[in-house]
Specification:
This protein has 290 residues and is an alpha/beta fold. It contains ten helices and ten strands. The protein has two domains: 149 residues, Bordetella uptake gene, domain 1 (D-Maltodextrin-Binding Protein, domain 2); 97 residues, Periplasmic binding protein-like II (D-Maltodextrin-Binding Protein, domain 2). The radius of gyration is 20 Å and the shape is globular.
């Protein structure tokens, strides 16, 4: 998992006009009790792993617990709706992935506005997904998979953690660019998706690398390709999809931290600055890379 340096968010102009004493008092008062960090997917996925590592460090640095609250379902919309209606005091936060942005175009009945109902706190980083197959599935390369899919249109299944998630959209892009037809099997929780992938209930998926790295290393899954423009440092021998025969393919996943709309600017500043320090810590970076 790669976490490049990023410029931190610029604060709203209004913070400059806030009395200095007021800003200091508020900053010192937060957090004075545990903070709930809502994760819109089940335990074990990349976003969950990232949130837990960050939550552990933030708990230590702030002296208050950052409690992970997994609320899977509806491609993250259940968790997003919960946080959109939470108090604007900084005690309910939301970790999101690229699926959060995709949901704006995929759902017409959202009970929140992704563009208006949230305060952006920080970009947390990015990672790649991997085209992983069960070891009993015959294709050993992307070319093998494309040839098999073309000979059996619509008869090969693939798994994801739900409509609009990275595992769904990246595979749909692959289908379009490779001119093949596959059948989508959405799961509610990544743990069940990975369990069925390893067991061969579904033959293939495009999960994030951290969520299946252990199974790839132990030979329970086979990695055919990574989905970014460059090879992964964690899987250096595995080609990109573009290298493997689908020119121009590129699909990466980003992560961010949000709060409800109207979150106090001084709280945004404090969280953003602390996350900057946490993500620059060499020990944490090494854990994230692993």
């Amino acid at each position: 998992m790669k976490f490049p340096r990023r410029k931190f968010l610029q604060l709203a102009a209004g913070i400059a006009a806030m009395p200095a004493a007021s800003r200091i008092v508020r900053a010192q008062a937060y957090p004075s009790r545990p903070v709930r960090l809502v994760v819109p997917f089940g335990a074990g996925g990349s976003l969950d792993i990232l949130a837990r590592l960050l939550g552990e460090q933030l708990s230590r640095n702030f002296g208050q617990q950052f409690i992970i609250d997994n609320r899977p379902g509806a491609s993250g919309n259940i968790a997003a709706e919960l946080v959109s209606k939470a108090d604007r005091d900084g005690y309910t936060l939301l970790a999101v992935s690229a699926a959060f942005a995709a949901n704006t175009t995929l759902y017409t009945n959202l009970r929140f506005d992704p563009r208006k109902d949230f305060s952006t706190i920080a970009m947390l980083g990015a990672t790649q997904n991997v085209l992983a197959v069960n070891t009993q599935f015959s294709p050993r390369t992307v070319a093998d998979l494309v040839a098999l899919a073309k000979s059996q249109p619509g008869r090969i299944d693939y798994a994801s953690t739900g409509v609009g998630t990275s595992g769904h959209l990246t595979m749909e892009l692959f289908k379009i660019m490779a001119s093949i037809d596959l059948t989508h099997v959405p799961y509610r929780a990544i743990s069940q998706q990975i369990t069925d992938l390893v067991a061969g209930v579904v033959p293939m998926a495009m999960p994030t690398i951290p969520s299946v790295m252990g199974h790839i290393e132990t030979g329970k899954l086979r990695a055919l390709a990574v989905l970014g423009t460059r090879r992964s440092s964690g899987l250096p021998a595995v080609p990109t999809v573009a290298e493997a025969g689908v020119p121009g393919y590129d699909a990466s996943t980003w992560y961010a931290l949000l709060g409800p709309a109207g979150l106090q600017s001084d709280i945004v500043l404090q969280l953003n600055a602390e996350l900057g320090r946490v993500l620059a810590d060499a020990t944490l970076v090494a854990k994230l890379d692993r």
